[in-house]
């Protein structure tokens, strides 16, 4: 067990922003909310899966919507907490801990905020080992847990409980349209599970991984070293491209930020062009028309200057960035996972070729 | 208390179709479902508000969506019943009776079906004394009852409970988009109330009114008399127009059938043209450009030949019809009701002038 302080928060915001592959919501705003909470004297305790009792009751909490919305529509700060309370009230018992759905920007920090508000720990694990845009892509559901019941709340006081349903795709469809009506962003609580369930279906130690990545970036800044090396070393990734953002095509549609970014190469990549397609998260990267990385492997765009993650909603012309590819968790590379998170699941008629094999 | 048999059902389908002012869902399909249920030996008992105990627990049930959908997407027949069960399960107790939300086509018959399925009575009253397209227009909510919780279910097994929220407008917005995602039509249970609540906020004796209107039309058919006279006499309405449908502009948008119908005058109305605008239900009628009737008064389009209601989704070129105006319930003419159901609530910058005053 470890406790999150302002320093750890700073690192997690950076690390989760990078590992979020563009999505998960703006990490800066998430950090500000959490910092305010820490200043008010609240504590956030992180427990590893090994410290979780098999019969704990756990729920995953986070924001849902388009990251482009979150930088315009400031949240009330209690939506996700209220969603958890609505779920608890529907189930008829309190939960013992929360677990993130994804490692990515605000959605790594949101569970900490809810944990602090409720006075329960957050578990050092998640359901993606990165971020993804839809509910069925969470390992809890890929590996057989039910996504019902699910609660969705907004800042206005609307509360919805999806009590039963066909599957996670239907839950995604119905809850996403609700989030759009709620103003493009809402708090959600889902994946009510036991400690034993979490041990079987979660991806381990990802909060501490995010912290390590952030620590290493901050250390490089302090030493005035290249943040690229720090990111490569702490993530086990490989550099895919370096360059300058030459164009962004981004629309907020159906509750997601969809589009692509074009990057003109510099340094070793001068003369080449990278294109990255995204749906909240970066999905496929091409260099001069050839695929170099696809989901579920991580495609992370990072500011060359200071190692800050450049999330989907922050992409803009002129940024000097580097792009790092990181092999995803083995739990996302099984046949049952690839059916849900592989390139065809996002509409790309491409095979998944592991990053290590392409290079 | 009276029991609905196949004969009463036949009359209610006609009467509720006429009083539904174009909406409420296709009465023919509703009738077929109810008839099948009656044939299977189920009974539907109707109790008047005077027979309702003050501490009964009551819920209103019906279909929501665009009537144009209901004639294409055949319902499973248990959606609305499942919605009631989901609501009961959320509340933690069974209800003693159901009450219609509106008198209108399928939505007058749907509560009978649910009542028969659940073995409870249906109350001879409703929340509109006609049909309207949105949830806030129900007298239960206009006169202060809460619209939360509300359950919405589809034929696929998706179940949603709206547990808390801002108001009936927000409930309408969120549940309507869910119904659209569910395929354009869903079953709903809402307005959990006591018997005392129902006595205060419901419009009385509207099921038996619908039956009386239907009886009178069927009687006219039998006697080969003009169904127009039968409708006028049994509804207390006045004839607004007679003619032939010359054009229909109808789109299914946002979960409603919206548009207008143009009618060329015949008989005493030869040379004149009537236009009627609708959103599921008929909203405003103009003759040669002058307003003759507006919501909340009833604008009912009826087949000249046999007295069958011509609901919004059945409007088509060439039908010979008459249009009857009927004064709405006094409960819809109070200032608080007119704010929600008057012409401006539907986007028309028109005052509400009671039908009796216009003529």
Overview features:
12 helices; CV3147-like; CV3147-like fold; globular; homodimer; 5-stranded mixed β-sheet; 7-stranded antiparallel β-sheet
Describe this structure in words.
The structure is a homodimer of 359-residue chains. With 359 residues, chain A is of the alpha+beta class. Chain A has 2 domains: 2-204, 3-Layer(aba) Sandwich (CV3147-like fold); 227-358, CV3147-like (Beta Barrel). In chain A, 33% of the residues lie in helices and 29% in strands. In chain A, the strands form 4 sheets. Chain A has a 7-stranded antiparallel sheet. In chain A, strand 11 (238-253) and strand 12 (256-265) form a beta hairpin. The longest helix of chain A has 18 residues, at 206-223. The termini of chain A are far apart. The model of chain A has no long low-confidence stretch (mean pLDDT 94). At the A-B interface, helix 4, strand 8 and helix 7 of A face helix 4, strand 8 and helix 7 of B.
């Amino acid at each position: 067990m470890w406790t999150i302080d302002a320093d750890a928060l700073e690192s997690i915001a950076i690390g989760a922003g990078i590992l979020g592959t563009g999505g998960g919501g703006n990490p800066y705003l998430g950090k500000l909310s959490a910092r305010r909470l820490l200043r008010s004297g609240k504590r956030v305790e992180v427990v590893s899966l090994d410290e979780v009792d098999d019969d704990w009751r756990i729920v995953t909490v986070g924001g849902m919507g388009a990251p482009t919305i979150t930088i315009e529509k400031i949240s009330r700060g209690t939506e996700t907490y209220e969603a958890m309370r609505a779920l608890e009230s529907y189930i008829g018992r309190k939960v013992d801990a929360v677990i993130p759905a994804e490692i990515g920007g605000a959605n790594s920090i949101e569970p900490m905020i809810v944990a602090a508000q409720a006075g329960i720990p957050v578990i050092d694990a998640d359901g993606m080992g990165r971020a993804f845009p839809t509910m069925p892509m969470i390992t809890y559901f890929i590996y057989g847990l039910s996504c019902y019941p699910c609660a969705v709340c907004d800042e206005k006081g609307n509360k919805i409980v999806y009590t039963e349903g066909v599957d996670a795709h239907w839950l995604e469809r119905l809850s996403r349209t609700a989030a759009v009506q709620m103003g493009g962003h809402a708090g959600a609580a889902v994946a009510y599970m036991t400690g034993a369930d979490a041990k079987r279906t979660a991806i381990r130690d990802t909060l501490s991984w995010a912290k390590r990545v952030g620590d290493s970036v901050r250390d490089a800044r302090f030493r005035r070293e290249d943040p690229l090396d720090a990111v490569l070393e702490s993530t086990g990734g490989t550099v895919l491209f370096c360059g300058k953002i030459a164009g962004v095509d981004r629309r907020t549609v159906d509750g997601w930020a969809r589009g692509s970014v074009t990057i003109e190469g510099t340094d070793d990549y001068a003369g080449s062009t990278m294109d990255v397609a995204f749906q909240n998260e970066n999905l496929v990267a091409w260099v001069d028309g050839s695929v170099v990385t696809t989901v579920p492997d991580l495609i992370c765009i990072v500011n060359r200057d200071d190692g800050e993650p450049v999330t989907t909603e922050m992409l803009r012309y002129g940024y000097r960035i580097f792009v790092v590819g990181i092999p995803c968790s083995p739990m996302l590379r099984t046949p049952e996972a690839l059916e849900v998170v592989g390139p065809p699941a996002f509409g790309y008629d491409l095979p998944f070729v592991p990053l290590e094999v392409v290079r």
